[in-house]
Amino acid sequence: ILEESAAAGKPVVLDFYAEWCIPCHELEHTTYADPDVIRALEPFRKIKVDVTSVDTAEIEAVVRRFDVQGVPTILFLDHAGREIPGLRMNGFIPPKEFLKTLRASGKDA
To answer: Which strands form 12-17's sheet, in the order they lie side by side?
Structure first.
């Protein structure tokens, strides 16, 4: 999927989450449901990475590749599939803070 997005030249937001993770559910129901956040993420391909049980080689490889230490972890990749520096977010991020971080990076649409 990451290769497809890079080939299409589309930036990606990777959302690492787990079913048992309460802050992950808060992100889903609060931050990602916010109309301004929805708008800001329109240019990105959104990919949720379920690490509830890291039992596939593909999931393990993605976790290792991006050195994900815990959930929720949100990171942004540019059109070439490289992580955008300074834009990684960990833990629950309220909508206003999420937007502030995204805008500070210059990646807000």
So the answer is: 45-50, 12-17, 73-77, 89-90
